[in-house]
Amino acid sequence: TGSKDNTIKIWDANTSRLLRTLQSHTNQVRAVVYSPDGSRIASASFDSTAKIWDALTGEIVMTLQGHKDKLMDIAFSPDGSRIATTGLDRIVKIWDANTGSQLGSFIAHLGYIYSISYSPDGSKIATACGTMDDLGNATVKIWDANSYSLLRTLVGHNYSIRDLAYSPDGSKIATVGGDWTTKIWDVGIPLLQEDISDAEFSIVTSKSSISLSAKPNPVEKILQIQYGLVEPMTVTLELFTLTGQLAQSIITNQAKDAGKYTLSSDLSGLGTGVYILRLRTDKEMLTTKVVVIK
């Protein structure tokens, strides 16, 4: 267990007897995990470091440094060869578990990251956004564990996501949120929507009940937007800058019946750049990137 008293404690799971206390972090320990073979313990702390400990002796094997803010979670790959760390700097770092060298790094969310997990086969990494990001999203993102490319994004929580876990067969992800809900996601099925722009900004929900597309892309003036609803919903359609500023409000809280809708939006007043088109309903949300060229 890790604590706000900056320590890690090892307990006998059968008798509840305290076996050892590990001390070295200078701020609270946010996460602690055993390696798959049980020989090491990894800890992530608000002091912005991760530490690897010998599980038998309690000695520090190595300290992982490089994050610029508090760490929130840490995970071993299933084969124990890699360690993933993440936190309030919104960055995921991958480390060699044997040497401590950094193997990779990528920005995973616009908001703080509270949780990270490898899939059981080690091919994917899932991250959970612990705060609403600049676009108002609380999302889970699934990444290729080797290329760090984004594979899919899960949208459904109405507030921050506190933790996530893969099912043993890797076909499902469970998440728990600040919206007082636990959600089970089927991530074993193929994507239901093709990414029409850049995966970093295309959000697709499992078994989605809404759809969104925009053409032409890039666009000079008039953007043709099409969206679909499988049931009656309240719809808001907006265009944002990459920094999260509202650039254009297209539809605001309009009640719509199930069906497909097509409309156009005049973007002549916008400057050249990349924007985010966001469709928000009372149940789900989709976004896609729009490139404006003058």
Provide a quick synopsis of the model.
With 294 residues, the chain is an all-beta fold.
Question: What do you see in this structure?
Answer:
- This protein is mostly beta strands and 294 residues long.
- Helix content is 0%, strand content 53%.
- It contains no helices and 24 strands.
- A 4-stranded antiparallel β-sheet has the order 3-4-5-6, with no helix packed on it. It has a 4-stranded antiparallel β-sheet with strand order 7-8-9-10, with no helix packed on it.
- A hairpin with a 4-residue loop joins strand 4 and strand 5.
- It is elongated.
- It starts with 6 loop residues before the first strand and ends with a strand.
- About 6% of the residues have low confidence.
**Shape annotation:** elongated
Our count of helices gives 0
Alpha-carbon distance between the two ends = 56 Å
Main structural class? mainly beta
- Give the strand order of the largest sheet, numbering strands 1, 2, ... along the chain: 3-4-5-6
Q: Which stretches are poorly predicted, pLDDT < 50 over at least 5 residues?
A: 191-207
What percentage of residues falls in helices of 4 or more residues? under 10%
The major sheet is characterized as:
4 strands, antiparallel
Radius of gyration: 21 Å
Give, in order, the helices and strands.
Answer: EEEEEEEEEEEEEEEEEEEEEEEE
| SS strand fraction | over 45%
Quantity of strands, as a count: 24
Question: What would the average pLDDT be, to the nearest integer?
Answer: 87
